[in-house]
Request: fold
Amino acid sequence: MSDLPTDPSPIRRILVGVDASPHSLAALRVAIDFASRFGAEVKGLFVEDQALLRATSLSVAREVQTSTVASRPAQMESMRQQLRQQSEHARRRLQQLAREAGVSHGFESVEGRITKTILEASEDTDLVVLGKTSRHSSRQKLGSTARRVFTEAAASVLVLRDEPPTGRGVITYYDGSESADRALRMAAQLARRHQSSLTVLLPENAESDHRERIQATYEVYVPVLRIRSLAPLEVSRLAPTICREGGGLLVMPDTTLPHDARDVEQFMYETNTPVFVVR
Reply:
């Protein structure tokens, strides 16, 4: 474990995917907040959905063939205009929030496949921030874009439905791996910068010196440090265990999280808290 007080900022560039959804606005606010606390730059990315434009184009073509175009107002150009308006709204919102926070920022609007475009952009950033879904405020459903970026992005990823509640602290799971070391350092920096508590969950069979090393390194670094050993049943059902801890932000090593799409969706449903995957 490194000496945290001398660590450089682990986050210098933040990419936030923006659209017209409430979850996207929450993601934008959190990205700006993180940038302010870490001295990072924020880049907003709006993707004009190529699949949606194509579907609109095909719909218009069918309407022309059946001579019902007048009864179906959805047209290719009107859809493009709607997306451009959403993009401009997102750009202005980012600009306003960034200026208020004194954060360096940029914005890009491109046409393409949403997931592919964000994954490609993740190769040139430190953190990707996304809303949990793009259209519906469903607790049950994790959007397909968020799910793939969550598991496949080159950078760390923060997926959220709402802004993390203040005063509820940061939680991380530590199993002694290198990936868990990175997640623990990130969790400690977040707890320190937000002046909140840090809870470290350990598997029951963790090496005996894990607790001592964590306590020696982090006890004077974060406002409040809690270390708790989990029973085997709690480890096997990690998501509901974490949910019961009541933290405001979960920071996890990517090696600990499920990678199957259904398992990822179930994990996000059961935790129902912002999840920060450290890579």
About this structure: The CA atoms of residues 158 and 276 lie 4 Å apart. Confidence is low (pLDDT under 50) at residues 60-73, 136-140.
